[in-house]
Amino acid sequence: MSTTISLRRAAYAGAAVIALALAGCGGQSGQSAAQDTQPAAQGAAADLPLVKDGVLTSCANFGTPPNIFAKEDGTPVGAEVDIAKSMAEEMGLETAFPEYAFSGLIPALQAKQCDVIISSLYIKPEREEIADFVPYLLSGSGVAVSKENPKNVTGYDDSLCGVRAVGITGATGASLLEEKAAECKSKGLEPVQVTLLDRSADALQQVMAGQSDAFLDTAELMGYYEKQSNGEFVVVGEPVGQIKIGAATLKENAELHEALQEAFNKVVDSGRYAEILKEWGLEAQNIANAS
């Protein structure tokens, strides 16, 4: 099997077969929707201000496995999907996951095309000016390269100076690359040559095709691709910048924010949260480990 073909196949962690094409992990550039059936809204949940009655609609980008991605048939899967479904179940709601480019998630929330973002969205000060967050995972950023590593990149350090690095538009990894480029220049070194893309699968393919020397994004995503690549794609250095991921709702929707926090607390107390993290190999990302 060729490297390209093997890289386009990923394990669906809830099954024993290899069924996901990595090229589909990032989904489509336009909007799509996936909905799962759960109990109809009842009690207080029926009175929540929702885009669609009885449904918790979460804007999503399916480009960050194992957190959230899509099976070949378009079905959303991943730890964040399971967390969202579990929270919705506690609220007596169904779930829907319309898909957007990562950079379009917050604009879609602001346009009230969804109720919440549960899709690897880091909690950052500028985002907290717009939204309230229910923290549910820890994350960080990681650097990965092809196994050949022709530029001898060693992590998020000065070895990135002068190399071609790729990140995802609107993501923290992209900001880190821009910061490193400026730092390199200030030291009299060649700046990082930054390319930004909308899909993580495209960024991965750029590195594997030799069009980019390094890829910087979430540590979970880098580790996932490394496992699926049979040694062709390698994480280098240590993760940087521990940060929380949270479920984002508009500040004007305080009622929903409070309901989501209560639901998440119940998911944790029931043991379901720990089960989800174990299933997806994300025990280290337990929000209880936040420093």
From TrEMBL:
PANTHER family: ARGININE-BINDING EXTRACELLULAR PROTEIN ARTP (PTHR35936:SF17), MEMBRANE-BOUND LYTIC MUREIN TRANSGLYCOSYLASE F (PTHR35936). Residues 1-34 form the signal peptide. This is ABC transporter substrate-binding protein. It comes from the Bacteria. The keyword Signal applies. Residues 55-284 form the Solute-binding protein family 3/N-terminal domain. The keyword Repeat does not apply. Keywords: Signal. It comes from Arthrobacter mobilis. CDD domains: PBP2_MidA_like.
